[in-house]
Amino acid sequence: MKVTTLQPSQGPTHHSAAPAEQARQLRVASHSHIKGLGLSETGEALTQGSGFIGQAQAREACGVVVDLIRLRKFSGRALLLAGPPGTGKTALAMAISHELGTKVPFRILVASEVYSAEVKKTEVLAENFRRAIGIRVKETKEVFEGELTELTPTEAPNPLSGYGKTISHVVIGLKTVRGTKQLRLDPGVYEAIQKERIVVGDVVYIEANTGAVKRVGRSDAYATEFDLESETYVPLPKGDVHKRKELVQDLNLHDLDAANARPQGGQDIMSVMGQLVKGRRTEVTDKLRAEVNKVVKGYVDQGVAEIVPGVLFIDEVHMLDIECFSYLSRALESPMAPHVIFATNRGLTLVRGTDDITSPHGIPMDLLDRCLIVRTEPYRREEIRKVLEVRAGVEGLAVGTEALDKLADEGSRSSLRYALQLLSPSAILAQLSGRQEITPEDVQETHDLFLDAKRSARGLEDWASESESSGPGGGGAVEIK
Ligand SMILES: Nc1ncnc2c1ncn2[C@@H]1O[C@H](COP(=O)(O)OP(=O)(O)O)[C@@H](O)[C@H]1O
Ligand SMILES: [Mg+2]
């Protein structure tokens, strides 16, 4: 059996490290089989497309929303995915993200993440809003690129000491497929070349306006047959030595906020973008955000930058409280608002943070008014079976037909998610008994070992009533209500 490894995060997020961030990646991994909404040219749901099975109406509705987002006609509005647990709400949001492509920022926030001891709730929301707004910065750079054929520093007597020598300039030769060029550059570049340990025969990249030097690798003309060093060989660059390069950087507003809160010197794009706003700061404040907005608007007017409104997905939205909801209503009005997708599995329920306001999905009416609501329906047994099949394929597990039937039965009895969760432990049991394929017995054994929510709750109820009937102190059981 193949031990299933977590898929690398796909698309939406590429950060790592922090626990919240890891949770986000796990979330993505359990949806790794979802590659899109699986719609036809005309927007109809294929029976099985891009890993998505069933839930046709919701998928088609999401397809319309994707079109609206592409046409930039969805800002200030929100999509609400409502339906029972395990009916593919998160999967739909992931599919929307895939449809929009990696260039459109997609930010996932689980509503309970706003309750942090260190940061204000609205701060968490503000940060996530800004992470969902992309900025594409276009820059034309003049660069020199080629294999280094010559490196001759020219020394001159040091005007300050009279004894020592300094480098007055450096002459380098660069070669590409097209031709060669000799350049006379200032001593700063020579220093950078030395720092990067660049020698003749390396392919280098020099930015004309900043003097930044990068070693691309060793020219593959120097590659020998036996090579134990870990060298990267690169082909001789094509085109001329002197090129104009159109560089496109994708950032988001939060990157700019953070960079400006901790400005550093340097020549790379983040340092440059980190000096938009003058003055030293250590914290992202509303004032700083406003200043960043202003500068960005200026760049947009000059045609240097373009704003790419992305998507903010807030899962389990009923966990937000009234304070957060009023923040959201206001934030959605701002001209720089991203597209927002909510998901919830609650029906009519109390709005958190209020004593007596009940509302559909626990969302206040004024916000609900801005939402397009899409329902997800519970799955039929056949659909559950298909999803299991797809998922087993992705995880590289062999499941027999009968075992698949049994898993599907379990799924329709409790939930799709429970059935999916039985897959990996069943595979381990199969492996322990020296089998490659999961059999119905493995499924049964896993089912006996691990309870689903309903059986678990029922078990506790029985236990509580038993310990009650045995009187106070009986068995020393702690009462569970
Ligand atoms: N229609 C579907 N086709 C394929 N996989 C699905 C489908 N619906 C749900 N899944 C998968 O089932 C699991 C549970 O779905 P999820 O989207 O997390 O449910 P929800 O967010 O509604 O509680 C996930 O691993 C998801 O990728
Ligand atoms: Mg979910």
TrEMBL record:
Q: What is its main location?
A: nucleus
Residue spans of biased composition, Polar residues class:
1-13
Q: Where is this region: Disordered?
A: 1-22, 460-481
Q: Write the record's keywords in alphabetical order, separated by commas.
A: Activator, ATP-binding, Chromatin regulator, DNA damage, DNA repair, Helicase, Hydrolase, Nucleotide-binding, Nucleus, Transcription, Transcription regulation
Keyword NAD present in the record's keywords: the answer is no
| Database matches in Pfam families | TIP49 (PF06068), TIP49_C (PF17856)
Give GO MF terms, alphabetically. ATP binding; ATP hydrolysis activity; DNA helicase activity
Reaction equation(s) it catalyzes: ATP + H2O = ADP + phosphate + H(+)
Q: Which Gene3D superfamilies match?
A: 1.10.8.60, P-loop containing nucleotide triphosphate hydrolases, RuvB-like helicase, domain II
Q: Which PANTHER family match?
A: RUVB-RELATED REPTIN AND PONTIN
What does this protein's UniProt record list under function?
Answer: DNA helicase which participates in several chromatin remodeling complexes, including the SWR1 and the INO80 complexes. The SWR1 complex mediates the ATP-dependent exchange of histone H2A for the H2A variant HZT1 leading to transcriptional regulation of selected genes by chromatin remodeling. The INO80 complex remodels chromatin by shifting nucleosomes and is involved in DNA repair. Also involved in pre-rRNA processing.
Q: Which family does it belong to?
A: Belongs to the RuvB family.
Q: Supply the name of the protein.
A: RuvB-like helicase
